[in-house]
Specification:
By secondary structure, the protein is an alpha+beta fold. It is built from 6 helices and 6 strands, in the order ααββαββαβαβα. α3 packs antiparallel against α4. 12% of the residues are buried.
């Protein structure tokens, strides 16, 4: 049996044990004590008491681990022919700047943010900036005008 098959079988047969082990590999702000629990509506929630920030894990963590100069994002546009690489350090700094701009505009936890941008590096940076500040980000591309027509 391959290593993949063993992991898959473990995840399938003992999901709480498997995911508890996986959670140990994540740099949590506050590690979860509960692996799986049901909320008031009976919906199962993984790691309900754990605290993390995916934007921090995507960028800052790598910078702290000495990988800041490694490539975090490659932009290769077949439309414009532009090819660019962004390191973790550069991405972290740009995301922090965008997050600061959003915060200065009053965006805070609990707010909803719509990002209406083409598929450019700044769209990914904006999403990560929102993840630093707010728990929920809507990201629509071409469908946004149709979904927001007639709204305030």
């Amino acid at each position: 049996m391959s290593a993949y098959q063993k992991e898959y079988q473990w995840a399938e047969q003992q999901p709480e044990s498997f995911w508890q082990h996986q959670a140990e590999n994540i740099d949590w702000f506050e590690a979860p004590k509960t692996i799986l629990a049901k909320d008031n509506n009976g919906i199962e929630r993984w790691f309900p008491d754990g605290v993390m920030n995916t934007a921090w894990l995507a960028l800052d963590y790598h910078c702290e681990q000495g990988r800041g100069d490694n490539t975090a994002l490659i932009y290769d546009s077949p439309v414009t022919g532009v090819k660019e690489r962004y390191s973790y350090n550069v991405m972290r700094d740009k995301v922090a700047k965008i997050a600061g701009m959003l915060a200065s505009q009053g965006v805070a936890k609990g707010d909803r943010v719509i990002i209406y941008m083409p598929m450019i590096p700044e769209a990914a940076m904006a999403m990560l900036a929102c993840a630093r500040l707010v728990p929920f980000t809507l990201w629509y591309l071409a469908v946004l005008p149709q979904r927001t027509s007639g709204t305030n």
